[in-house]
Amino acid sequence: MSDAVGDAGAAGGRAGLSTEEARRRLEAEGPNLLPSRGARPFWRIAFDALREPMLLLLLAGGGIYLLFGSPGESVILFMFASGSIVLTVVQETRTERALEALRNLSAPRALVIRDGERVRIPGAEVVRGDLLVLEQGDRVAADARVLEARELELDESLLTGESLPVRKRAAVSGDTAIVRPGGDDLPFVYSGTMVTRGGGFAETLVTGPRTEIGRIGQSLATLESVPPRLRKETARIVRVAAVGGSSVALLVVLLFGLFRGSWTEAMLAGIAIGMSLLPEEFGVVLTIFLAMGARRIARAGVLTRRIAAIETMGATTLLCTDKTGTLTQNRMTVTELWLASGESLPAGGSGAVPERFRKLLDIGLLASAPVPVDPMDAAFHAAGRNLATQGRWALAHSYGLRPELLAITNVWDTGHELLVAAKGAPEAIATLCALKGDERTRFNAAVDAMAAHGMRLLGIAAAHGTRGAPADYPARYQFRLLGLAGLSDPLREGAADAVAQCGAAGIKVVMITGDYAATARAIAAQAGITGGTVMTGAELDALDDSALASRIGEVRIFARTLPEQKLRIVEVYKAAGEIVAMTGDGVNDAPALRAAHVGVAMGGRGTDVAREAAALVLLDDDFGSIVKAIRLGRRVYDNIRKAMGFIVAVHVPIAGLALLPLLTGSMIVLGPVHIALIELIVDPVCALAFEAEHGEEGIMTRPPRSVAARLFSRPMLMWSLLQGGLALIALIALFAAGQWFGLPHPQLRGLMFFALVAAVLALIIVNRSFSTSLWRALTRGNPTLRYIVGGVVAGAIAIRAARPVRDILDFGPIDGRYMLAAAAIGIALALLLEKLKPLSSRN
């Protein structure tokens, strides 16, 4: 259960809890774990998937085709249905891991004092009252009050979003109630955070769901992902079409049988009508387009955890972005230098630093830990030259941060003298160097100017001592000010361009961060998030939802925000009608990621909790990939609309020709086998050819579609019905002409079949683009469509040439004149619709 790693002497005289008392508390209060809502079993996820209307329709369509002798079509539909079930089960199983990842993060192994000895125990066994030993590099196991702090600093960015570690102090008599994380000099540490410097002891106050990270977990457990609008709308249309088609098919069977006396023909006509009106392609289109979209976007470094999010991303009107680790790289860099002489230098580029600035960096490195853990120490290691290593100097003494001197000082034995390097808060270094008069005024002005850019400032000073003398306390040396170093978390490459592209696409970008307002404002300016106001978490708390809703439109930066405030901001934006995408990488971002229409997590630096709560994961942590996701989302939605419009249009002539015998008393033009052949053209065109279409011109310069916009808008339906109606009129005219000239029924049926194929090809070409010309539609690259059209033409030629196939289809011999007449139908239809295309509208 546990292993001893030390003795009572190492515990600083503290005995901690007894093993027996810890056992009693563990039994009474439960383990130090987050509660699980209970993962849904595999069978339940699969059962829920089977209840989807589109999936039921796919299965029903497959059953109909199988029942009436079309096993090929049946197998295809069953394959689509099976694929949809597998995708749903895999994705839903992944989402169940979110809380499990949070539980694991909140329960690392912990070093505690039990019975006067240090022991390492599983984090789940930490109880209230346990004495935690805090050491550099360890993750804190529970929320606790600091009893002793030795230069103690922690990285709390996963809870607060602050880019820098925060100092901790020992608690005093008044520090009894734990407060929220954020800022320096709090006497509390929090579960899941990391010790970056120093050490100490802390008394556990709360464990499990009562911790700060536990509150986030409980919030995450109660949130449900936003259901995709496209799926709901398509399901509604499918239900209406399925009910309507089934009713019409039944009516056809009854009327045909009663008035014409042939119940066999009545059944054939009813089946043909049902097949012509059964919109099984809708489900196929939605499944294939989103699945293929997920595959395409994966090549751009974006993992899709919920495929419906791709389409929703294209509808995004508001992008809420975290700062630390999202817009920035989540690592500190020396970005500006200031010398005591008054010279300054931006040091964030790749160019060489002039020699006169080198000593400032080198002394900053010598004042850092030899093995850096703290991000600021790591920044100086990256920027400075390791003189100690080159000269084989020895570290004689090191002084950490103290309340009376907020500076770190290292004393180095160079072999001929002592070199004392100090870095710390500017006011502490100014005091250490005894700055006065104009020198202090110039120094303060430089501090104010650099701080205005949101940088973390460190003063740097050096002193010399006699070798062999004791390493005195820093205040006893005569320090000379070298200058200031400004450190910041640099903006990600391409982030500013991505923000600009979002603006061009009509998408508002808002920063939500736990960091300070000045830092947030500086990074926002670099990223191009300008205009609007800044609102802090304290200001947000002072507003009720209605007041916040009235002001939220003018805010571009939310600073010093807590996890529940991020969630509240997302909810208020959603209530205002925005389609919200939320980016983030920390545990504190997880509830907002789950609540947003689309949660986007960082895959490299992000936490497991954020990744599991999100719908999209940026594998390369490239903020610019968000723009790629938006572009692809818009393309997918456009292509879905093209495919859906084509489906509606093409079913009008199919259904019309199937109904023709009932309305005119003529021969049956299309039977089930003929419609099944036509569907062999329609299905791959919908599922593959339209999916492969390129994005429309200006796809990223138009505003997001309206929140109220429907996939099946009235203009789209009217345009599709007009296309299908004109195709039906042309085919009926050809049918009438054939009867007028006395063509035998088999020959006329064959002519109508090939004319219908030509009309289908014309509808494909017209619907390939919303606005481009017919010639552009014919020439724009789409290899998938070329293969499909080539296969259709080859199949038509084979049917015409193979008599056994014509006999099965009940086609008579068709000479070249009739084939030209069929082709003319398609050409005339395409030219006519091209002239009418300006009447259509995407909206």
Key phrases:
eight-stranded mixed beta sheet, 32 helices
Task: Give structural notes.
- This protein has 843 residues and is an alpha+beta fold.
- 51% of the residues lie in helices and 15% in strands.
- Strands 1, 2, 3, 4, 5, 6, 7 and 8 form an eight-stranded antiparallel β-sheet that branches. Strands 9-23-22-21-10-18-20-19 form an eight-stranded mixed β-sheet, sandwiched between helices. Strands 12-11-17-16-15-14-13 form a seven-stranded antiparallel β-sheet, sandwiched between helices.
- Strand 11 (333-339) and strand 12 form a beta hairpin.
- Helix 5 runs antiparallel to helix 7 and helix 26 (672-689) packs parallel to helix 28 (745-766).
- The two termini are 65 Å apart.
- Residues 1-12 and 102-107 have low confidence and may be disordered.
Count of DSSP helices? 32
N-C termini distance: 65 Å
Apparent shape = elongated
- Spans of at least 5 consecutive residues with low confidence: 1-12, 102-107
Average of per-residue pLDDT values? 79
Over the alpha carbons, how many angstroms does the gyration radius reach?
A: 35 Å
Helix content: 40-55%
